[in-house]
Amino acid sequence: MEQAIIKAACALGAGLCMGLGAIGPAIGEGNAVGKALEGMARQPEASGNLRTNMILGCAITESTGIYSLVIALLLLFVF
């Protein structure tokens, strides 16, 4: 009985981890790409610098989602 409760809690925790851990990076990346495209449309000569910074920022933001995926997989398959 206790093992089933632990498995259920791990599954619930993994679901919450991915649910909350994926929403933040998705909103952040969407906002960053939208603002970068807006900046590129306003100043086309700065598009190279904006694109580089946008890709770097999206890579850093995406690492948060990957960390939450790793934690969710650990919760599911280790415990």
Name the CATH architecture: Up-down Bundle
Mean pLDDT: 89
Low-confidence stretches: none
Shape label: rod-shaped
Please tally the helical runs, counting DSSP H or I stretches of 4 or more residues. 2
Number of strands: 0
Rounded radius of gyration (Å): 18 Å
Task: Write down the CATH class.
Answer: Mainly Alpha
By CATH, the topology is F1FO ATP Synthase
Structural class by sheet pairing and helices: mainly alpha
Identify the CATH homologous superfamily. F1F0 ATP synthase subunit C
The sequence of SSEs as H and E is: HH
Separation of the first and last Cα atoms = 15 Å
Instruction: Give the biggest beta sheet.
Output: none
Number of domains: 1
Helix coverage percent: over 70%
Share of β-strand residues = under 5%
Describe the protein's architecture and organization.
This protein has 79 residues and is mostly helical. The radius of gyration is 18 Å and the shape is rod-shaped. Helix content is 91%, strand content 0%. The protein has one domain (2-77): F1FO ATP Synthase (Up-down Bundle), CATH 1.20.20.10. The model has no long low-confidence stretch (mean pLDDT 89).
